[in-house]
Amino acid sequence: MKPAPFDYVAPRTVEEACQLLSEAGGGATVLAGGQTLMPLLALRMSQPFIIVDINRIAALQGVSKVSGGTRIGPVTRQNDALVDPTLKQALPVLVTALSHVGHHQTRNRGTIGGSIALGEPAAEMPATAVALGAKIEARSVRGVRSIAAEDLYLGPYMTTLEPDELVTGIDYPEWPAGTTPVFREVARRPGDFALIGLVGALGVEDGRITRAGLGWFGMGATPIKARQAEQALLGQSVSGIDVQAIAELAVADTAPFDDHHASADYRQRVGKRVFARALAEALDIRQAA
Amino acid sequence: MSEHRINVEVNGRQQHATIEGRLTLGDFLRVNCGYTGVHLGCEHGVCGACTVIVDGKAVRSCLMLAVQADGAKITTVEGLASPDGALHPVQQAMRDEHALQCGFCTPGVVMTLAALTQDGARPSSETLLDAMSGHICRCTGYQGIRRAARKLAGENS
Ligand code: FES
Ligand code: FES
Question: Is the CB–ligand 2 distance for residue B102 below 6 Å?
Fold first, then answer.
């Protein structure tokens, strides 16, 4: 249970970090909060030659209002984001989702960017980014690009980030005031990965749905956007929504698998109820059972 | 394999050391500094026994590299009681409520509660109990630990 030897470097700037990642030619791993990487190192499931610790890069920390939305620095600690007044006001559903990430002790180290770049399919942060339409800024010595969160994930722990790229910001678009948060997850114990989870937001104006962003976690190899349900909801009047029919559509977009925690069938059956309840709760619709 | 000089304040004492990059903070505190109150159970972030306070925050010391603690202030369970042996309020509450049996998980539990109640902070019992999800105890069935946490929140148990 001890990590294999590696070289450790802690650059102070993004440029330096990108330079190191480029020179390492794929042999380096970025260390953010370390709450997943450290176990992987201890178990020797990960044996990088070089650890590039980005915790000392001040420019990667903090939350700021930017034109068109909110930007979160990737090394922002989950517990700091949890009490951040800007986030509470602009992205309340992100704050709710954060309270389900790991435990108090791991949130003191764990970062938003680390969780997003890792791509655990049952984790809250990747699904929240996908649901809310966030963009991930990735930098390397070759330049900078912006990746839509839904294009980031290829499979469990697999992303479209290149080995020389560093996540330097997560940009969440603005959601209008009065946006209704949607969040529900089923887990065995607090802090466990979700068996089934739903996160997102609904914009409602004059009793009609004007915007919908909904994402599943724990329901497939990646976080999954509930695209069919989103489309079906747009333009609908809240009073006329057939919750069960939309839940059916939402589950149709998922592709869960069997594992030792739950079967795929269980996940879809419970997922449908989770969705129906979360939607009814968010829109304050009374429904039978 | 890189070596690093670090300078860390542990329980009020400066510790200078040259260490390997891969050394965890937990091993550094326990093996290099001799603070054996840092209990390493799982060594991969699951049990919470290794919890210490780093710059005012409860963290799992097996999930941090020692080199990352360069310049930090750390408190382990050895740093809580006063020099005359008087117990820290968290330790007293744990003792009063019979919140431990074998004691393996105890330093971690104590450090989380100490971090959340430091400088006179009085978090709700909900906050304290929620933070207890980060600790596994194989002995007590948690009821004593919960009582101690509620007591620290100012509730009568
Ligand atoms: S030894 Fe660190 S969490 Fe178990
Ligand atoms: S007292 Fe034995 S593990 Fe908690």
Answer: yes
User: What is the rounded average pLDDT for all residues in chain A?
Assistant: 95
| pTM of the predicted model as reported, rounded to 2 decimal places | 0.95
For chain B, what is the domain count? 2
* Residue B84 domain flag: no
Q: Tell me, using a 6 A CB cutoff, whether residue B103 lines ligand 2.
A: yes
Judging by DSSP bridges, how do beta strands A50-53 and A7-9 pair with one another? parallel
In sequence order, what are the beta bridge partners of A184? A198
Q: What's the complex ipTM?
A: 0.96
Contacts of B59 in chain A (CB under 8 A): 105, 108-109
The CATH number of residue B15's host domain is: 3.10.20.30
pLDDT value of position A189: 83
